[in-house]
Amino acid sequence: MALDSNVRNENVTVINEKVADNNEIVKTRKEDNETSKIDTTSQQKNEEKEKTEADNGEEKKEEVVFVQDFGFSVRIVSPGAEPFDIQVSSMELVQEIHQLLMDREDTCHRTCFSLQLDGNTLDNFAELKNVEGLKEGSVIKVVEEPYTMREARIHVRHIRDLLKSLDTADAYNGIECNSLTFLNTITQGDILEKKKTRPESVDCTPPDYIMPNNKELPLSALQPQHKDQKLPQCVKALTTSAWNPPPGYRKIHGDLMYLYVITLEDKHFHISACPRGFYINQSTEQEFNPKAATPSHLCHSLIELLNQISPMFKRNFAFLQKKRNQRHPFERVATPYQVYTWCAPVQDHTIDAIRAEDTFSSKLGYEEHIPGQTRDWNEELQTTRELPRKTLPERLLRERAVFKVHSDFVAAATRGAMAVIDGNVMAINPGEEAKMQMFIWNNIFFSLGFDVRDHYKELGGDAAAFIAPRNDLQGVRVYSAVDLPGLYTLGTVVIDYRGYRVTAQSIIPGILEREQEQSVVYGSIDFGKTVLTHPKYLELLNKAGQQLKILPHHVLNDKDEPIQLCSSVECKGIIGNDQRHYILDLLRTFPPDVNFLILEGEELSKEVKMFGFPIEHKHKLCCLRQELIDAFVDARYMMFIKYAAFHLQQLNLRKNREILNNNEDIEEKQKREKTDEIVAANKGKNVDYENEDEKKKKEKNGNMEAEEAKKIVESMTDGSKLELEESTKNIVKTAAMAVGSLKDTEFDIRFNPDVYSPGIKHCEDLDPPLWKQRQLVKDAAEFLLTAQIPTFIRDCLDHSSAPMDGITLSEAMHARGINIRYLGKVCNLLSKIKQLEYLHNIAVGEIVLRAVKHIFTTYLQGTEMMNLAQAVAHFLNCFLYSGTVMNPLQGAEEGRNTRKRKGRRGRNNPLICQDSNEWATLLPKTLWLLIRQELKCYFDYDLITGDIDATVETFSLSKISLLRSFCLKTGVQLLLRDFNLESKNKMIFYEEDVLNIFPVVKHINPRASDAYNFYTTGQNKIQQGYLKDGYELISEALNLLNNVYGAMHPEIAQCLRMLARLNYIMGDHAEAMVYQQKAVLMSERVNGIDHPYTITEYAHLALYCFANSQISTALKLLYRARYLALLICGENHPEVALLDSNISLILHAVGEYELALRFLENALALNIKYYGSKSLKVAVTYHLVARTQSCMGNFRAALNNEKEAYVIYKQQLGDNHEKTKESSECLKHLTQQAVVLQKKMNEIYTGKNGSSLPPIQIQPPSMGSVLDMLNVINGILFVQISQEDIENFKAELEKQSLIDGKELLVDNEVDNDSKSNGATETVVDGNQN
Questions:
Q1: How far is it, in rounded angstroms, from Cα 164 to Cα 347?
Q2: C-alpha dihedral, 1240 to 1243 to 1247 to 1249, nearest 10°
Q3: How far is CA 142 from CA 51, 95, 159, 243, 1320, in A?
Q4: Which residue spans within 218-293 are E strands per DSSP?
Q5: Which of 55, 426, 588, 1008 is the most exposed place for a label (fewest CB within 10 A)?
Q6: DSSP label at 199?
Q7: Residue 283 contacts residue 243 (beta carbons within 8 Å)
């Protein structure tokens, strides 16, 4: 679709808006000048690859084409600054140089300028490669341009942002996409700038609160405050003047706006903005005199003017700039989505007129960068999706535009939803009841999650209305991922704020002008009574449905006519005025979950009933997840292939036998057997797949078997051998029946989302039999219980997944297709497995908090704005305080008076019910009763405890983890202080402790598909041992990710971590540290400072710092990681055992044996608990304990521990393994030492003259040996390579040679015992040297 230039410019503005600080990162990117590889297979291949989310990329071996993206340097000449050179890339836009200059120290005060090359002004939106005459060494001039009203405002805003650039207030307040990072505070400066020459003073004392088994965990340590936190002020006030706007007779003299400044010297100035810049006028507070003062100090930039009139401004601003430029770019760049922090210190609220003006003018209806115009979100979202996508550069531009518009839309929708709930937006149907009101703000449509007009009456009323937006969002997610040209979904964001659920959607052009009945051309608006269909929609949805496994089916309308659909009945198709085909109401995209539906006349299988299903849920909108559907179809396909292959082999054998002895009796017998098998297959319902363990084993042994089976089946379906045709048809038919396929002649498993929808009449004649369709839905729900949940638990048992908190637990369950409503069942299963006690505790904590969140949502709806802080504090006391909780309003005389006042106020905002102060009557006992009811009703889980103390005690939960989780789930922000959570006689929370309530936002995440393919292919290469190829592919993935997402994104953090690990394995420790530092900063910024992923990043960085001889830094990072782990999940977790092993090794290396031993003993206890007393991990820990004890001279204890290690090695690895031999040597050495010591002791006791204890001979271990041991416990395996190899390797990398390298090393990042302690180099013990 061709864009007119106007729209194009607007879109490019949109695309480039957040490139702001991106350039800085682009400059730091090593891969800048590398060439991008892309595969150019046919367009159809590309589209397929785009659609298949997880293409493993193996097909990339086709022809490779290079897109030339070369770097060169240009010289910038700016007025008032020295000329300087910058590095640019041919793919960049001129705009990016603009942004770079606005960020550089010497040019940042300019905003209104153009760039000129040989006297010609450059187009902001041109790519550099298209600029005529631009080459290496070209000189680009910065030319000051005249201001307009808009430019003057942008300039003042930019100056305000510069003066506030080091202020953390925005991050704490959750605005402007700012977020926190503490890495450089913890390491006391940038680790890359610590000089190698200066030996670090090693201060290794851990803070008391992170010591093993310490009970008190202070919250204040979560956000360590800088010593030099107070930054100098530059001016006392800089505001727009009250004389604005300029009167008509001044406008024609060029006055654009007036500013008012009070300098630190306490001088007051009124400043005029005109096209030529800024000057001082003669106005005062009382008198308007816009004529220029003498001297007028006319300057093009406001900063230059302020420098002239205030010496203190000049000094302090220079200091501020220096400080700002010392910060890592990743500390300053905006994140794509807002990250909120759940606690914050007391903030000073400063005067800021520009912020105030923003709040009351531009922010309410308009976006900043297009003043006076609201953005047409729908047009932007759809236009970016229509951009071409045939070649890699086109796809990159398209994905970047899609991502940029989407993140802007999420930000606008969030602001709008808050405005709606805060009563700041007028409803479009103001006469209706508050819950039924709808709103439009900034071209976004907002509706509330209540059951309006009994729409969901049959499905569960308000409970269904609350869940529908989330289901709808899942539908939008999968259709967006399919990304079918011609099929459009609405921009959708679901926001939970102050107890209300708000759905924000972009608006279909023309929909507001007509009734819904007239607009809908496909689907039903009354749950299936009247149903419409449309050929174009059928074609589009059928294409999409093939990937989503949705079955085209017929339903009967009220006239009993069959109507064909390729989606659920509720899915509506509306053709907008822009002639695009939109689909909406995708809440039933996937089949229903029959385990949570009470269906008349339907029997569930024996296995499902054993689990206690079916359960009646609060609503009837429970659907299965896409991940489950995919896993189920894959499992059935494998079953189909194996079944058919087996019978085909039998058939071939039989044919051969027939030729030998043409005996008809045998044939008869076999026919009978075959029919028996068909009957058995249908009766016993898939014996193969129920025995999941067996299948696992088969799959492990038999990837070959599966491959062979596929070959056999493919040859069979060729149909070239005519005589086989009839029998093979029978075999396929049998196999198809065995797996429940909808067609007899081939494998066809798809789902009809409407099979159990109430009130829908199905058409039996035109579709596969209804019982078959229903059986598939029941089988999929059974598969979740009998296959997916056991697989999830097995993942946790072999430690390939170890969730640390509710968020990571939910992710792990979702990845297996398990809905959170199964968490109760998962808890019950986990409670039976001793080794997974930690996970059981996390799961119980999560399930309790989810119940608390449900109750809190309703609780907030009954609270008036004025009482919000008090109500939240009261609720938290009822939840976490074990003493007596008083009614916060009782006895307060003032409370009674305000009650009358409040009654009057409440009517102003219709959303706020008249607050009867019911919230104040909540008691802990009532709350815990509600929690238990909610757990039973929603999760079918029986909580055995009835108050906070018993719950915390029984499930080893920590109150601080519960508090953190509660705040993250509900958006509450608390004051950062050390709450006394164990208090029994003094309330824990007061209204002053509740600082804010943030929205909790759910939205889709557009993907960078090419980057994803490069990344997964790179991972596969690494697993095969081709490190160099893997490194190149992942570097390329990083390039593409930066291209699509800009500088900040969780996927980029993951990519950086991978590159750091690869560099480390290849021996480049310094480079590993550079990459990992970026990964930590980025994870803190985009995931959160206390997210489990951030802990992992810290632990990796500690290892690389140690490898770079930054020992005390490594310890500080590990202490931080352990603190965060304690905050998130408490002491009982395998991850804590790993951190403790790391800490103790480094403490051992610096001779702090007693401290090392405390951490080691804790690690040993945890490892025995979670890996079993005979695991190799435990053997290594025993060995480390023995090593430390021998260093302390405690040889007897050391001997006992080394014996334990020896026994495990002998059992697991046999007598001849090097580990067993090594342990045996160690035992001899320790025995020797112990004997010598005992002799001397005896001599002292018998009173021999001159006998004294010999000094214990301890040589501290070498740093190399400690690093080797660290690698062992962190599961990094090395194959020995020489320095020379590394140098050659690097040289090859730089040459970008395409020759396959040898298998150099293997990175086996697994926690798998046998691997993590197997083939490593011999570790030299300190005390054996």
A1: 14
A2: -70
A3: 45, 13, 19, 33, 59
A4: 235-240, 257-263, 268-274, 277-280
A5: 426
A6: P
A7: yes
d(CA 586, CA 568): 8
- Cβ-proximal residues to 55 (8 Å cutoff; 6+ apart), any chain: 49, 1013, 1016
CA 50 – CA 35 distance, rounded (Å)? 22
Q: Is the dihedral of CA 900, 902, 905, 909 positive or negative?
A: negative
Please give the sequence-ordered ranges of beta strands (E in DSSP) within 931-1089, or none if there are none: 972-975, 994-997, 1000-1003
Return the H-helix or E-strand segment holding 370.
none
- Model confidence at 34, pLDDT cuts 50, 70, 90, reads very low
pLDDT at position 1262 over 70: yes
Cα(838)–Cα(835) distance, integer angstroms:
8
Rounded distance between C-alpha atoms, residue 207 and residue 1068, angstroms: 32
Report yes or no: 1065 and 1025 within 8 Å, Cβ to Cβ. no
Distance, CA of 713 to CA of 728 (rounded, Å)? 9
How many Å from the N-terminal Cα to the C-terminal Cα in the chain? 74
Work out the pLDDT band at 172, boundaries 50, 70, 90. very high
Structure tokens at 366: 């308009």
Of 1190, 1124, 1179, nearest in space to 1156 by CA? 1190
Rounded to 10 deg, the angle between the 837-861 and 823-830 helix axes is 150
Q: Picking from 177-186, 1072-1081, 1250-1259, which range would have the lowest pLDDT averaged per residue?
A: 1250-1259
Q: Is omega for the bond preceding 218 within 30 degrees of 0, making it cis?
A: no
**Any bridge partners for residue 970, and if so which?**
none
**SS3 sequence of 605-653:** CHHHHHCCCCCCCCCCCCECCHHHHHHHHHHHHHHHHHHHHHHHHHHHH
Confidence of residue 635 (pLDDT cuts 50, 70, 90): very high
How far apart (Å, rounded) are the C-alpha atoms in residues 1006 and 403? 6
Q: Two tokens at 9?
A: 């410019």
Q: Can you tell me the distance from the alpha carbon of 244 to that of 354, in angstroms, rounded to the nearest whole number?
A: 13
* CB of 68 closer than 8 Å to CB of 90: yes
pTM: 0.85
β-pairing, 139-144 vs 235-240, is unpaired
Q: Does position 944 have pLDDT exceeding 80, yes or no?
A: yes
Question: Per-residue pLDDT tens for 410-462?
Answer: 999 999 999 999 998 999 999 998 889 999 999 999 999 998 878 888 889 99
CATH architecture of 169-176+229-358: 2-Layer Sandwich (3.30)
Q: How far is CA 89 from the centre of its chain?
A: 30
Could you give the CA distance from residue 1080 to residue 1072 in angstroms, rounded to a whole number?
12
Within 13 Å, how many C-alpha atoms sit on residue 90's CB side? 18
- Torsional sign, CA 1153, 1154, 1157, 1159: negative
Nearest residue to 752 (alpha-carbon basis) of 566, 587, 622: 566
Quote the Cα angle for 818-821-824, to 5°. Answer: 100
Q: Where are the domains of the chain?
A: 169-176+229-358, 377-386+416-596, 626-786, 848-1003, 1134-1273
pLDDT at residue 844 tops 90: yes
Contact 1199, 1235 (CB under 8 A): no
Residue closest to 1309 by CA, chosen among 1273, 1280, 1279, 1268: 1273
Report the pLDDT averaged over residues 375-379: 94
What count of other Cβ atoms lies within 10 Å of the Cβ of residue 978?
A: 13
783, pLDDT greater than 90: yes
Mean pLDDT of 607-625: 94
Both structure tokens of 949: 């103390």
Which CATH number, 3.40.50.300, 1.10.510.10, 3.40.605.10, 1.25.40.10, labels domain 1134-1273?
Answer: 1.25.40.10
Report how far residue 1204's alpha carbon sits from residue 1223's, in angstroms, rounded to the nearest whole number: 10
